[in-house]
Write a structure and sequence with these properties.
Length: 172
């Protein structure tokens, strides 16, 4: 990708991504294309990270081992359900995954927790407000079905390794 296209992509994604600045978005784009390049060498034409490549990243980078949880995280990133995480899904997914607010994380996790007894208003239904109240009372409910978010140590290691001077990068 030439510098002009990279800059345009960076500007577009950074403008719509509230948890990363422009430098961080550029670093994540660079990482994405390095990872996709690695995948492309092993397979035919790939336009993004497939489920197996994505799960490998979760395992190696964030220490995740539960197949079901890793598949849920993949589906959370793959918003268009095409079986690949493209560069936009990568940036927006990592934004929430690494730096999302409690409210944002709750909205993503709420569907997974419907079986828990959280019906605070006793109307026989689990509404988002019921779920939100439960999570605010006990934040560990976000992890009730396994760790699906990075632990702080993994998050810091990832960010310190990835967010460096993009001037060091060669053209993608």
């Amino acid at each position: 990708m030439n510098r002009k296209k990279l800059q345009k992509l960076t500007d577009t994604l950074a403008k719509n991504c509230k948890h990363f600045n422009t430098l961080e978005v550029k670093c994540l784009i660079h990482l994405f294309y390095n990872l996709v390049g690695d995948v492309t060498e092993r397979q035919s034409v790939v336009i993004g990270l497939d489920r197996n490549a994505f799960r490998n990243i979760l395992h190696v980078t964030f220490g995740m081992t539960d197949d079901m949880i890793m598949d849920r995280v993949f589906r959370g990133f793959d918003k268009d359900n095409d079986g690949c995480v493209n560069v936009s899904e990568w940036i927006y997914g990592l934004s929430l995954f690494l730096r999302g607010t409690l409210e944002e994380k709750m909205k993503c996790k709420e569907r997974s927790h419907r079986g828990l007894d959280q019906d605070h208003d006793h109307d026989g239904k689990l509404s988002f407000s019921d779920y939100e109240r439960s999570v605010r009372e006990e934040t560990l409910l976000l992890e009730a079905f396994g760790p699906c978010l990075p632990d702080p140590k993994s998050q810091m290691e990832f960010e310190s390794h990835i967010f460096k001077d993009p001037n060091e990068f060669n053209d993608i």
